[in-house]
Structures are given as structure tokens and as C-alpha cells.
């Protein structure tokens, strides 16, 4: 499989008025074409910093990243603009890139129809539920047809029930559209339900503690994150990851 992302010996130290702080310490991982790969780590472990380096928002201190393709970035908050309709929110990336061509508009129309949002295209964000807004945000990210999706805790602002539903929605969209995704999360269950492979980050300065491939033997037909949560392996993975993750004891 082609590696879309390669992260080699990545180290990041921030220099602030209070001194220097090492956030990432020789991080290595890759993301293969078609997989959902998760970085699981406690708050403050440097997950967003890794994504910011991948998008070139910030520079690494040491090491390098290789990205074979274009990036779409989806954030924790949906960042929809209140004064633009759903359609105008979705096409904003194309407008910025000056790529609002017919092929792109056709792709957006297909995505909106497939994922149940076409009837809402002329509405405004405040008229939609939190879950629908996250679907809109993902379709906006997909509108420029990126090769890899970077998802920075995209479910954490949603309440629990909505989060379970949106896990399924987003998973289905990523897999149906044959996208590759790098998900960062502090939520063990979400990582297991969503991922093909998980790497566990230690607390700061973050290192990769271990990696796991996630398999569910007895799922018939198409897998959904919700179904995974009911499988016997789910609890086994949870117990393993629970011991590996540094449990929120950073002060
Ligand atoms: P996570 O996304 O895992 O919660 P972050 O990558 O946001 O963690 O942050 C890791 C640590 O780096 C935090 O302690 C944060 O305060 C610090 N940090 C992040 N960005 C900067 C910056 N630009 N300058 C200084 N410190 C930063
Ligand atoms: Mg973060």
C-alpha cells in the first residue's frame, strides 16, 4: 500500500517567555492509502501540534514529514459561517482556491444528495443540528477532493448520543469516498470504533508508545463504528489501550 503520510523522527520544542517546552519527542508513524489511522493521546500531548506540522502551519524542530497528496483539515469546531447558506459554506474552499468549476459543483451535489443534506443546502448553519453541521463540515473538507483528511477531535463538541451517530456518518462517508484519514482523539472508544490502526501517544513530551491494528472477526457485511462497540474484541482493545494511555494525570 502506498504511504500517503510519513512522519520521521519528528521533534518539536516550543520556546516561550517561560522557557522551552518539548512537546514531541522523535515521533515516527505513517498513514497508508485507504486507512483510518488514529493518534490516541491525552489532552496536551501534542496531537494538534502534529497536525499543524503536517499542514505546514508550524515548523518541526527536528525530523521531517512527507505528504504524498493534498490535505483536507477538519477541526473540533465546525467553523461554519453563520451568514452563509450551507451551500455557500461548502463551496468556500473552492472559491478561495478559484476552483469553483462544474466538476466540483457536481461532486458537491452528489455528496449532499448521498448524505442527506441536499434539502438543507439553502438553509443557514443555525437551523441545523450539531451532527448535521459536522457532516456539512466534512463535505466542505471533501469539496476540494483531498487525498488525506486530517480530523482534529471532530466529535468532541457533540453530546454523547449525537457523537455515536456522527461517528457512523463520518466513517461511512470516509470509507464510501475511498478517503484516507488521520484522526486525532483522546477518546479510547472512539479510536477503537473508527480506526483500522491506532498509535498511542505518551503524555508530554509525546512519544509513540505502541501501535495496534484493529480487527473485528464477526462483523457481517459493512462495518459501522456503532456495531464495533458491541463486539467482544471491543472490550479487549479497550482494556489494552486503557493501560497504555497515560490517564489524564498531567498537571
Ligand atoms: P493536544 O492537541 O494533544 O491537546 P497540543 O498540540 O494542542 O495538544 O498542545 C501540546 C502542548 O503544546 C500544550 O501544552 C500547548 O500549550 C503547547 N503549545 C501548543 N502550541 C503552542 C505554541 N504555538 N506555543 C507554545 N506552546 C504551544
Ligand atoms: Mg488538540
TrEMBL record:
Protein name in the entry: ABC transporter ATP-binding protein
Pfam families: ABC_tran
Record's keyword terms, sorted: ATP-binding, Nucleotide-binding, Transport
GO molecular function, one term: ATP binding
UniProt cross-references to InterPro entries, sorted A to Z: AAA+_ATPase (IPR003593), ABC_transporter-like_ATP-bd (IPR003439), ABC_transporter-like_CS (IPR017871), ABC_transporter_ATP-bind (IPR050166)
Span of the signal peptide: none
Origin superkingdom: Bacteria
Residue ranges crossing the lipid bilayer per the database entry: none
Occurrences of domain ABC transporter (ranges): 5-228
CDD domains: ABC_NrtD_SsuB_transporters (cd03293)
Taxonomic lineage from the root: Bacteria, Bacillati, Bacillota, Clostridia, Peptostreptococcales
Keyword ATP-binding set for record: yes
